[in-house]
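Running this now, will post back.
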Amino acid sequence: MRFRLIPRDNGFYPLFEKQAENAVDTAIQLQKLMASLPVVPGRVDTIVAAERAGDEVNRLVRKRLETAIVTPFDREDIQSLANSLDDVLDEMRAAADLAHLHQLSSPLDGVDDLVALLRKIVETNRSLVGKLSTLHDVQGDLDEIDSLESAADATYRRIMAVLFSGRYEALDILRWKDVIEAVERAINAVETASDVIQSIAVKHA
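Update: finished.
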């Protein structure tokens, strides 16, 4: 058994868990927002507030990195994970902002499916991040995130096919494309976060 004069700083785990929980709450709000077009401004405000709270958590991670002597895993991995989790919130805010600014007034076939996948993937990510301190039983969550991301890619392609089918005006295509791509980037950011955790698990196996 290895003895440490200076214990690891385990204060990063609650920060990551808070960020993952924040992403779930935000995805729920975004799902409600997209299900009740035209956009309700109050829901956008809630998502903006969540994204700002995420920025504060990210700032606390950076500040902790500056003072921690022994980190629970590589500093580069801590920063990469923090950035990826922050990106999830940034992209959800972008989707909400764009839906509001573009004054989307009616739903587009398939978007509700994509946002539902976003909610599922952030919920799985919450479970995965909750296991970060022990790295026990993470493979199931990693596999689920990979499966959800693949399903999201297929859904994204299906939505784009509908959008460019000739049934929509050019401006409507541009408006929806911005929103859909922001949701897709949020999903990809979750996958990036899971890749970091997978790398950490391999290093500490």
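The first helix runs from residue 12 to 35. More later if anyone needs it.
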